[in-house]
Amino acid sequence: MKLVSSASSPLITSMRVIPVAGRDSMLLNLCGAHGPWFIRNLVLLESSDGRTGMGEVPGGEGILKALENAVPLVVGTEVARYQRTLNAIRASHGAHTGTMQHQVSSAAEAALLRQPHEINLRLDNVITAVEAALLDLLGQHLGVPVCELLGAGQQRERVPMLAYLFYVGDSARTDLGYAPPGGGDDWYGMRLRAAMDAEAIADLADAAAERYGFQDFKLKGGVMSAQDELQAIAAIKRRRPDARCTVDPNGAWSLAQAVEVGKEYGHLLAYAEDPCGPEQGYSGREIMAEFKRATNVRTATNMVATDWRQMG
Questions:
Q1: Residue spans of beta strands (DSSP E) within the chain
Q2: Which of 2, 83, 168, 239 has the greatest number of C-beta atoms within 10 Å?
Q3: Rounded mean pLDDT of 46-54?
Q4: β-strands 37-47, 52-58 pairing
Q5: Cα distances (angstroms) measured from residue 221 to each of 172, 273, 295
Q6: Residue 193, CB half-sphere, CA atoms under 13 Å: how many?
Q7: How many CA atoms lie within 13 A of 217 on its CB side?
Q8: CA-based radius of gyration for the chain
Q9: Coil, strand or helix: which one is 19?
Q10: Residues sharing a CB contact under 8 Å with residue 307, sequence separation 6 or more, in sequence order
Q11: Which CATH architecture has domain 162-311?
C-alpha cells in the first residue's frame, strides 16, 4: 500500500532582483560616517500557486550581480526542495570545490573586501536572499509562519525591539548628498539634525519612544570617547530609568578602557556589545571574556566569533 503522496510542492515561476536605496542622515560610526544612501537588494519569487515570497539583504553591485546570475538556478525548482536550490547556487560560486569567489565589480568594492568586518559581499548574503524568499513561500504553502520551519520552531508570540540610536554629524559640512536637516521636534525632524552630545542622544531616544513606542535603546559607539558614550547612556537613563540600554563601539575600546567604563557605568547597561576586540595576540573572545570577568557586565557580539579559535 502506498503511504507517501507523490504530490509536489509549488514550482518557482519567476525571480526578480530589485535594488533599492533610501536617503539618510549623516550617521556616524567607528569607520567615519554612513553614506548618504542606504542600499538593499530585494528578491521576489513567484510560485506556480500564485504566491510571492520575499528576501532582503545588503545592497551593492557584487551581491546584485550574483543574485541576477542565480536566476536560472532558481526558476523551475520546487519550493520544498529549497536546499537543492541553495546548494546549486553555492556550487556555482565554487563553494563545494574550495574555490569560492566573491563578485567584485569595482575598485571600491575590492577595497571593502579588505576591511576585516565587511560582510556586504559575502556569498552568505546571496544565499540568504534566496533562502528567505523560498522559506516564505514554503511557509505559505504549509500554512505556518516561517519561524515554525527553523530550528526547534516557534518559541514565543512576540519579542521586544530596541531603538538603534546614532550620533548624527552635521551634513552641512560636506557636499555629499545627505538628507537635509528637517524641522520639527518629532522623530522625522530630529533624526536629520546633528546630534553630537549626550543630551542630543537622549532627545533622539525620546523622539523614537514617542513615535514608535520603544522602551529600550542601543547606541552606536566608537565615535566619541568611551566616557562620553557612556554619559549618553546615562542621559537616557536619567529620563527613562526603566529603559534597558546598551552601547556598541564595534570593538573600538581597548580592554583597559572597556574595563574602566564598565566598572563605572556597568550598572546602566543591560549588556555591552563588542566593547573590545583582539588585543596583544589574544582573540576577541578571550578579551571579551576578560572584560566580563572584570566588570560583571553581560556581553554580546556580532564581530568577535569569526574564526574557530574564537568559538573554542
A1: 12-23, 28-29, 32-33, 37-47, 52-58, 162-165, 216-220, 245-248, 269-273, 299-300
A2: 168
A3: 97
A4: antiparallel
A5: 22, 10, 19
A6: 15
A7: 29
A8: 22
A9: strand
A10: 283
A11: Alpha-Beta Barrel (3.20)
Contact 138, 51 (CB under 8 A): no
Lowest mean pLDDT among 8-12, 41-45, 177-181, 305-309: 305-309
pLDDT at 122 exceeding the cut of 80: no
The DSSP bridge partners found for residue 253 are 276
- Tens-place pLDDT, residues 58-106: 998 888 999 999 999 999 999 999 999 999 999 988 776 545 555 555 6
Q: Which residue reads 581597548 in cell numbers?
A: 254
Rounded Cα distance, 72 and 89, in Å: 10
Report the C-alpha gap between 288 and 274 in whole angstroms: 8
Which residues in the chain are classed under CATH 3.20.20.120?
162-311
3 state DSSP class of 56: strand
DSSP result, 230-273:
HHHHHHHHHH-TT--EEEE-TT-B-HHHHHHHHHHHGGGEEEEE
C-alpha cell recorded at residue 79: 519550493
Strand partners, 300: 273
> Cα–Cα distances in Å, from 192 out to 38, 163, 168, 195, 269?
14, 16, 8, 9, 27
Residues of the chain with CATH 3.30.390.10: 12-149
- Residues in Cβ contact with 51 at an 8 Å cutoff, skipping those fewer than 6 apart: 10, 137, 140, 141
Q: Which three cell numbers stand for residue 78?
A: 520546487
Fold for the domain defined by 12-149: Enolase-like; domain 1 (3.30.390)
Model confidence at 126: pLDDT above 50: yes
Statement: residue 272 has pLDDT above 60? yes
